[in-house]
Amino acid sequence: MRLAQDDPKHRAPFGRPIRELFRAIGIAILVGLTATAAHAQAPTPSATPTPTPTPAPAVIQPATPQTPSSPPQTTYRLETDISMRSIPIDVRFSGARVVIFGSASQMGPPPVNAGPIDVVAIIQGAPAHLTVRRKTNAWGVWLNTRSVEFEQAPRYYAVVSTRPLEAVAKTSVLAEYGIGFEHIPISTTLNQAIGLGPIQLNEFRDAAIQLGIANRQYVRLDGGLTFVGKSLFRGQIDLPATVPVGQLDVSVFLFRGGEVVARHENRVTVARQGFENFVYEFAHRQSLLYGLMTVALATLIGATASLLIQLRRGG
Amino acid sequence: MDFYLPIAETAANIFVFIGMGAAVGFLSGMFGVGGGFLITPLLMLTGIPSAVAVGTGAAQVVASSVSGTIAQYRRNNVDLKMGLVLCAGGLIGAVFGVQAVSALRRAGQFDFFVSLSYVVFLGSIGALMLAESINAIRKSKSGRPAAKRRDTHDGLIHALPWKIRFHRSKIYLSIIPPLAIGAFVGLLSAIMGVGGGFIMVPAMIYLLKMPTNVVIGTSLFQIGVVTALTTVLHATSNQNVDIVLAFLLMIGAVVGAELGANAGQNLRGEHLRFWLAAIVLLVAARISYDLIATPANVYSSSFTRETR
After folding, report:
1. Are A242 and A280 part of one and the same domain?
2. Which residue from B277, B89, B298 is spatially nearest to B201, judged by alpha carbons?
3. What average pLDDT does chain B have?
């Protein structure tokens, strides 16, 4: 299997030539994948060395009980990868486009009436502490009167699927795997939400999700993954410039007849590079020096501007 | 042209911020106000996280104040002695202000108190200034010269001890009123998160009876000192100063400040006060509107930065 290398050209915004190049690379990936699929007995990625070891493809037995009439069970194999294993943040970073691709295959006899095949991918940033506030009107003035602290809320969450999630599986199944906006893992401990009933707490949770959607932190792309041929699928997602630095976990689920039959995990690392990394580390490690340097810079710019204007006037 | 901001952690168009800095710098150079009250909400509008907007706004104000102070100093409009006395007072006030902030935060209505202070102070100061300046403009139009010689020898203010001659401001005054005004503004600026030029300028004009031009130069000097201190405090305690964003704003601001100082030089004192009053009132009206109008979304959320 061929893997797209971490290539700075993958970064958005895409100029037209870069977009063309990107398309060419995408086609190359697909051609490579198709070739791999032809050799179904050699599924492990081996030709190209990868920066991080790929977790072994997971094989899950179908959760539904098998009928005794079919003793050789059908097993499913799901293999996926991401076009970029690491996303560098440099001064020109304004978001990144990543391609999720993979193949879903089944072994053993084809099941009878097993229902359609679907693929759902979730991209999730590391959780952080989230405060949600609510304003109420008191004496004609709008004030923040209530707030809930959610200790765990993902800073980024995208769900990409071959079909609308409602058509893929039942709510209970989606909830089990944390798939869909309503199942984003946003949690709080009881003492943080003291005096709030479960209904009110849910209102805050829904508000947090709505605000996340409005900020492009929470994204849903129904039909964002498409099958190319029988077992290959691909889809792309544009990460915004505000994508959280750190690790993004990519979980891909293979559904058959509304049940998860296989899943595969990937990882993308978003890291500051060069100048961006230097400034961030400097601001956090040498904060006094950083503050003094900011003031020095301000004084220098202010004084230089005055001097230049004075010189230009010949005064 | 987009540029990734290392502390704000988002990409931004550099020309938007240079333009924003220029607009605020213009007002700063013209009226002797720092512009912190304008730059912070503007940054938040463009999607910069509010904490970074506050810290970086302070850094920007340093640059425009330095540029504005030098421009005014060349026109002999800075009373250094008065500026230093005000700074000394401001330092005392800021210490108490920081205490007040933590007390209000504990009470849980800090944001409301900040908004209310803005409305009350800006509203009343703006209204008084507007009335006075209109009066002065009318008088000068009717041909009668405005009272030029300020009587500096009457009233309670002049019964106070430790009198000093402030040559540049042409006043002979006890050190206590400027110290008290500096302390009061320092207190408010710690609470409200701004340099306090909007309160300092009217106080110097009407309470200390300094000439309007000297007030503007001296105010810029004092704001520069105060915001330099604030910037360092923000950088050390919150790490919320984005030096790249600050740089973009500064480039615009210094140019704007010089242009503003030139434009202000051609305006009469009472006209300057009239326009300043108008801006002060606009800001007060805007904040009142935010308090009273039904918000589009009653919910708001913010991620706390992860500790590393």
Report:
1. no
2. B277
3. 80
Q: Are residues A307 and A172 in the same domain?
A: no
Q: Is residue B305 pLDDT above 60, yes or no?
A: no
Give me the domain span that covers residue B138. 2-292
In a domain, B305, yes or no: no
Optimal mutation site among A301, A304, A310, A312, interface B, most CBs of chain B within 10 A: A301
Interface check for B13 against chain A (CB to CB < 8 A): the answer is: no
Contact B67 A302 (CB under 8 A): yes
Render pLDDT for B135-185 as a digit per residue (tens, 0 to 9): 888 888 776 554 544 444 455 666 677 777 777 777 777 888 888 888 888
Q: Which sign, positive or negative, has the C-alpha torsion A168, A174, A179, A184?
A: positive
What are the pLDDT digits (tens) for B76-92? 888 888 889 988 888 88
Contact between chains at B232 and A276 (C-beta distance less than 8 A): no
Contacts of B298 in chain A (CB under 8 A): 134-136, 142
Q: Are strands A218-222 and A157-161 parallel, antiparallel or unpaired?
A: parallel
User: What confidence tier does A35 reach under pLDDT thresholds 50, 70, 90?
Assistant: very low
The β-bridge partners of A218 are A157
Of residues A174, A169, A294, the one with CA closest to residue B239: A294
Question: Does A223 contact chain B (CB < 8 Å)?
Answer: no
**Which of A93, A126, A299 lies closest to B62 in CB terms?**
A299
Q: Which two tokens stand for residue A161?
A: 């699927």
Residues A280 and A261 grouped into a single domain: no
What ipTM describes this predicted complex?
0.80
Contact A305 B2 (CB under 8 A): no
DSSP state letter for A189:
-
Q: Is A296 on the interface with B (CB under 8 A)?
A: no
| pTM, 2 dp | 0.72
